[in-house]
Design goal:
This protein has 400 residues and is an alpha/beta fold. It contains 17 helices and 13 strands. It has two domains: 255 residues, Crotonobetainyl-coa:carnitine coa-transferase, domain 1 (Rossmann fold), CATH 3.40.50; 85 residues, 2-Layer Sandwich (formyl-coa transferase, domain 3).
C-alpha cells in the first residue's frame, strides 16, 4: 500500500475533513479517528439511517479506528498529546478556535512532534478576515460564486445537489498532504496546511474571474440555465427517453450537421461560428430536439451523434449509474459490507494507481470500538488503566 507506515490523528467530522482521511485510508494509512464523547462524529446522525447506523457515516469513515474521548477530561487531553508524538499527520475541521482552546493548535503540537504535518479544513480558512465564521457546504457554494453561476437563466441562484464544496476541499486536502509528505521526506520538516472550502471552489472558475480583466466592464458572468450563453449547441436537450448533453465547439460543428442530416447548416450565416450559433440558439435547440424525437430512444440517438464524433452523453441519475457498465468497469460503484447495515453500495475510489491496483477491505468503526487497541498498542496502557479511564467516562464506547 502506498501510504503504509503513515499514521494520522483524525479529529474530523461530517464530510470535508473525513473525505481527506477516507482517501488516505484507501491507500493504507493508519487513521485514528478521535471522536468527542458522548455521541462522537455528528455524521453518525445524518440520514439515511437504519438500525441506528448512518450510511453517510459508513461511507466516509471506513477503515478508520475510533477512539472516543471526553476532551473535557485532563486525562483525555493527555492522551491526545501522547498520540501526537507518534503520528505523522493531524487533520481537523472543527469550528473556529476549538483546537486552540484545548492547546491542540499547530504551534503547540509541533513542540511535541517537530516533524508533524497538520491540515485544517474550514469554510473561510484559519488565517483570513472571515476565519471567525462557521460555514458549511452551501455557504461556501454561495460565497465562492458557484451558486451565482448555477440555476435558470434570469432566475434565482441554485445550490448544486451534492456536497461539492465539502468533498472538493477534502480532495484538495488529500492532495496537499501528499506533497507535504514529499517535502518532509526531502527536508525533514513538517508544516501546517490551511485549507479553505471557499478557496478550493473559487479557483475552479475558468473564465468567470479573468473575464472582467480581458473584457473590461462589458463582462458580468451570470447563470446560463440549461444552455451556454456564448457557445452553441452546448447544453442540456430533451431526448426521446430522457435528457442528454451536447458540447459542440467549432471543430465539431460539421459533425453535428452531418448527424442532423442537415449539411447546409454548416455554412448557414446564422450558425457559421460559436457566437452566431449562440445568438440563434433558440432555433438551434428546436432543430436538435425535433431531430432527437425521430429516434425511438436516447441510446439510438446518442449512437448517431457518436458516429459523427459529436461530444454528447446522457444525463444519468445516481441510481442509473449503479448498474451502468462504465461505473462497474471502473470500480466506481463499490459494494462494501457493514456489520449493521450489511451490503452497502458506495462510490468507488477515484484514483487508479498502478503501484496499488487492489484496494483494502475494511469497515467503518463503531463508536469507541478501538479505544483499548489504540491505548494499549500505541501508548502501552495496561488493562487496569484502560478500565479506570472507562469507569471515569474519559473514554466511551457504544455499539453503534
Amino acid at each position: 500500500m502506498i501510504l503504509d507506515g503513515i499514521r494520522v490523528l483524525d479529529f474530523t467530522q461530517y464530510l470535508a475533513g473525513p473525505t481527506v482521511t477516507r482517501l488516505m485510508a484507501e491507500m493504507g494509512a493508519e487513521i485514528i479517528k478521535i471522536e468527542q464523547a458522548p455521541g462522537g462524529d455528528p455524521g453518525r446522525l445524518l440520514p439515511l439511517i437504519r438500525d441506528g447506523r448512518s450510511g453517510f457515516f459508513v461511507q466516509q469513515n471506513r477503515g478508520k479506528q475510533s477512539l472516543c474521548l471526553d476532551l473535557n477530561h485532563v486525562a483525555a487531553q493527555a492522551i491526545i498529546r501522547e498520540l501526537v508524538s507518534k503520528v505523522d499527520i493531524v487533520v481537523e475541521n472543527f469550528g473556529p478556535g476549538v483546537m486552540e482552546k484545548r492547546g491542540f493548535d499547530y504551534l503547540s503540537l509541533q513542540k511535541l512532534n517537530p516533524r508533524l504535518i497538520m491540515a485544517s479544513v474550514s469554510a473561510f480558512g484559519r488565517k483570513s478576515t472571515l476565519s471567525h465564521k462557521t460555514g458549511y457546504d452551501w455557504i461556501a457554494q454561495a460565497f465562492s460564486g458557484l451558486m451565482h453561476m448555477t440555476g435558470p437563466r434570469g432566475g434565482s441562484p441554485h445550490p448544486v445537489g451534492i456536497g461539492v464544496c465539502d468533498t472538493n476541499a477534502g480532495v484538495h486536502g488529500f492532495a496537499a498532504l501528499g506533497y507535504a509528505l514529499y517535502h518532509r521526506a526531502q527536508t525533514g520538516e513538517g508544516q501546517y496546511l490551511d485549507l479553505s472550502m471557499v478557496d478550493a471552489m473559487f479557483h475552479m472558475h475558468e473564465y468567470n474571474v479573468h473575464g472582467r480583466s480581458v473584457a473590461g466592464g462589458d463582462f458580468a458572468p451570470t447563470r446560463m440555465g440549461a444552455h451556454h450563453e456564448m457557445i452553441a449547441p452546448f447544453g442540456v436537450f430533451k431526448g426521446p427517453t430522457g435528457y442528454f448533453v451536447i458540447a459542440v465547439l467549432q471543430l465539431q460543428w460539421a459533425g453535428m450537421c452531418q448527424a442532423l442530416g442537415r449539411p447546409e447548416l454548416e455554412k448557414d450565416p446564422r450558425f457559421i461560428d460559436g457566437s452566431s450559433r449562440a445568438q440563434h440558439q433558440d432555433l438551434l435547440i428546436e432543430i436538435i430536439e425535433v431531430w432527437a424525437a425521430t429516434f425511438d430512444n436516447n441510446e439510438a440517438m446518442l449512437g448517431a451523434l457518436e458516429a459523427a464524433r459529436v461530444p454528447a452523453g446522457p444525463v444519468l441519475s445516481p441510481i442509473d449509474a449503479l448498474d451502468h457498465e462504465y461505473f462497474l468497469d471502473r470500480g466506481m460503484v463499490r459494494t462494501v459490507t457493514d456489520p449493521i447495515l450489511g451490503d452497502v453500495q458506495i462510490p468507488g475510489f477515484p484514483f487508479k494507481f498502478s503501484a496499488q491496483p487492489e484496494l483494502p477491505t475494511f469497515e467503518a468503526p463503531l463508536l469507541g470500538e478501538h479505544n483499548a487497541t489504540v491505548l494499549s498498542r500505541l501508548l502501552g496502557y495496561d488493562a487496569a488503566r484502560i478500565s479506570a479511564l472507562q469507569d471515569a467516562k474519559t473514554v466511551v464506547r457504544a455499539n453503534r
